[in-house]
Amino acid sequence: MRKPNAVGIVANKRPPKGLIPRLRRALSALMEELGVGEKAVTVILTGDRRIRTLKREWWGEDEATDVLSFPHYEPGDPFVPPHLGDIWISLDTAKRQAEERGVPLEEEVLTLAAHGLWHLLGHDHQKEEDWEGFRRVQERILSL
Predict the structure, then answer these.
(1) Model pTM?
(2) Are 142 and 111 in contact (CB under 8 A)?
(3) Pick from 15, 50, 77, 100: most CB atoms within 10 A?
């Protein structure tokens, strides 16, 4: 029997009411559809200050961003550990982007979680055609 996946959520910044259960449900369902339903991820909801520090430390860029992914394995390795990695989401940046796009903050956070998960699964967006997979999972999570 397969063990169900685990979506851990750490709220370093207070999320809107109802966001955590919806995020956990939708991300779990997306992981199931992507064939990693028995794996786990952790989503850390934080603010711009913390995510800016992480981006500076790991990417050498001194700016806030919306989402960062930290895989717990080297994508492409034949062994994929039980915990895929961590997805850090800045609620500050997500809120600004949601307002710019005219969508609810919850929708923006779900989109960013799907984006982060796709990165954890070894995908990147160096070229325009690489964005197709990101767009697909970002749209899909909104219907779950």
Answers:
(1) 0.93
(2) yes
(3) 15
| 40 DSSP β-pair partners | 6, 83
CA distance 116 to 90: 12
CA distance 117 to 136: 12
pLDDT range class, residue 1, cuts 50, 70, 90: very low
User: Are the CB atoms for 141 and 43 separated by under 8 Å?
Assistant: no
What backbone torsions phi and psi does residue 68 show, to the nearest 5 degrees? -130, 140
Strand 40-46 and strand 83-90: the pairing is parallel
The Cα 110–Cα 137 span in angstroms is: 10
Alpha-helix residue ranges (DSSP H) falling in 14-126: 19-33, 48-59, 91-101, 105-120
The continuous run of DSSP H or E covering 6 comes out as strand 6-11
Encoded tokens for 42: 């952790």
In the sheet that holds 67-71, the strands lie side by side as: 6-11, 40-46, 83-90, 67-71
Residues 6+ apart with CB under 8 A from 32: 5
